[in-house]
Amino acid sequence: MKKSSWLMRLAGILLFMFFVYLSVQYFDWYILREQSRRLLADPLWLAVMALVYTTAFYLRALAWRLYAGWDRLSLSTALYGVFHSMFWNHLLPVKMGDLIRAFVTVERREMRWETAIHTVVVMRIVDILVLAMLAGFGVLFYSGTILQEVSWVGGAVPVLFILLVTLLIYGMRKKWFHIMQKHLKRVKQRFRGRRGLALLLLSGLSWVLEGIVVFGVARSFAAGLSFWESVWVNSVTVAGQIFHLFPGGIGTYEGIMSLSMASVGVPWQDAYHIALISHGFKFVFAYLVGAIVLVKSPVSWKTLRNAGRMKQAGRRETTR
């Protein structure tokens, strides 16, 4: 196994062990049940969360379509692809969402495979870079609050962020940049001028909007977490899913989110339960939307089989 794969797997195991530790220390069924009921008792706010969260995916579909070309990729296919990716990543133990997203465009005869995988990889890199920037700005902006923590949290968050960015850059260089290099001329053309600015703005705004889930759940706890703190917490957490071990990043998501919230002053027990409920919201959303997408635009078993084979082939390649 290559050093980068080994380090990511080790980081994932350590984060999951940290989640287990938090669960032993702070899990309280009464808090989880009562806070979930409190959130469900406010259907208007739940609707706002769902609408804004949906809009975030709509903006990612627009960004993908803008990069691929308005005449090449329809909005419906882009939306189906983005939602399929979300659904399968929350369902399967390995992340095959991006491969399935590319296959959706091929099945709908809108792009050839090489073009489809290229556009998906580029958009994934854009998302990761935007998340890294949002997380980095947050570390700088909240550094005073973070470093005031008297516990080990104050030093753990900057260290975790530096490790995260290092592994992201190393992983992208090894895994994705060789795909981009084949079409480097096209990448430069697409990111030139207003189009490139629009792509970055659409991606950035989509991740800002996704912070509504954390903010909405924290609001029910009266945890004092601002919207921009919620955006930062979400950005660090989602970027950290490169270390995932289980479907939807179970364990790693809660561990990173709890640590991030604790670093800006949210009590550990509240931070832990906010992470549980917000992740639960995303799972429910993924399955509900996934069920609709499977009815409206199902993927064939051939697509799932091919995506699985490609994922296995990719994993074997990275362990050589």
**What separation lies between the terminal Cα atoms?**
6 Å
Q: Main β-sheet: number of strands, strand sense, barrel status?
A: none
Approximate shape = globular
Give average pLDDT, whole number: 83
Instruction: Supply the number of structural domains.
Output: 1
Structural category:
mainly alpha
Order of helices and strands: HHHHHHHHHHHHHHH
Oligomer: single chain
Tally the beta strands: 0
Helix content: over 70%
Beta percentage is under 5%
What would you say this structure looks like, in words?
This protein has helices spanning 3-26, 29-40, 43-68, 75-91, 97-107, 113-141, 143-147, 153-175, 177-182, 184-190, 193-221, 227-239, 252-263, 268-296, 301-318. It contains 15 helices and no strands. It is globular. The chain is an all-alpha fold and 320 residues long. The longest helix is centred in the middle third of the chain and has 29 residues, at 113-141. 82% of the residues lie in helices and 0% in strands. The protein has one domain (3-318).
